Amino acid sequence: MTFRTALCDLLGIDCPIVQSGMGAIAGPELVAEVCRAGGLGVLAGLNVPPDDLRAMIRRVRELTDRPFGVNLWLHRALRPPLDPGEISDEVLGGAQGMLNRFRRNLGIPTTMARPGRAPDLVEATIRVVLDERPPVFSAALGWLEPGLAEEYRRRGIKTMAMVSTVEDARTAAAGGADVVVAQGGEAGGHRSIDGKPASPDATSVGLMALLPQVVDAVRVPVVAAGGIADGRGLVAALALGASGVLLGTRFVATRESMAPELYKKRLLESESGDTTVTDTLSGLWARALANRFTREYSASDAPVLPPLVQRAAANDVFVAALKQGDPDYYPMMAGQSVGLIRDLPGAGEVVKAVIREARAVLDALPRRVRQA
Questions:
Q1: Mean predicted confidence (pLDDT) in 32-44
Q2: pLDDT at residue 202 greater than cutoff 90
Q3: Cβ(83)–Cβ(117) under 8 Å?
Q4: 287: containing domain
Q5: Does residue 91 share a domain with residue 226?
Q6: Read out DSSP for 54-94?
Q7: Buried-state track 170-202, b at ≥16 Cβ within 10 A, e below 16
Q8: In this structure, are 152 and 291 located in the same domain?
Q9: How confident is the model at residue 2 (pLDDT cuts 50, 70, 90)?
Q10: How confident is the model at residue 372 (pLDDT cuts 50, 70, 90)?
């Protein structure tokens, strides 16, 4: 099903729909389904060991011969991973004390232990992408160094960089990005910035305001992300100058998504007002479905551990919640488009439905303008 823009011509896809490379969600089956339907599926590479990432890339190629992408974080907290040993005993004790309340509620052992240091994977996984040469490299949460973009270009790999501010869009384009993704404040998941601001307000500009500014600021195709789940959103993004849209939350709620059933069920039951921007889940600002974990932690005076160390410290809580089927203590990233999602189709069906809806909107638009 074709619906071509400059983005399609650049990436070799049939329609301007990109599936977000969401960690622990976007596996080979989801990616391949999106690609076969004409969009760009993006494989999640965050925290995936190099050999596993190589196997996943090759699995996508077994499932489809269409262009696809691989997403990696370039955040400074991963290059190398932060050392938990540098956290003060007072801060660690305060965070673990809060997490122990949740552990007791779930009936799992409490602990005041210092979490281990995360494995240093970024440079090795970058090398895997260079070796395997997927058509697209998707960068998020960090700087795209000009040398890296040039190295990908020499291998025939297009680079797509997600940003949350106009300034970062200029930096990404100057650094060699072939495509810039403008992430509006409505978007689910982590704010695509390097470091961590004192509050999320600096990176929470709504897409309708951010998108045309980014389009004006760079000379490469721009993809709109945040609050989009159907054809109306695609048409609106194109009207604001985008060359395509990136959907995340809509693809979480698909049959091929690797999200657990309790997560998918909660998405289908939620409204836009059920999301919150919090740092309690990972130590970085992210939009997720609010639950008892986010509400009680945010309401407490407990400190939040540094980026991604917080996620490691809370991991036993999240694992126990998943085993017990308890959504009150499980992290569920979601954007404000969640209020538009009420079914669990196949990922390919989502792509086709968005294009079909967009065509209907465009056909009806002249009549609506005359009536205005």
A1: 98
A2: no
A3: yes
A4: 83-117+273-331
A5: no
A6: HHHHHHHHHH--S-EEEEEE--TTBTTBP-GGGS-HHHHHH
A7: ebbbebbbbbbbbbbbbbbbbbbbeebeeebee
A8: no
A9: low
A10: low
